[in-house]
Amino acid sequence: MAVISGVVVDTDGRPVPDARVYLAAGPGPFPDVAALTDDQGRFALSAGADGSYTVECRSEGDDAPRTAGSAVTVRGGSADPVEIRLA
Question: Is the pTM of this model over 0.90?
Answer without folding.
Answer: no
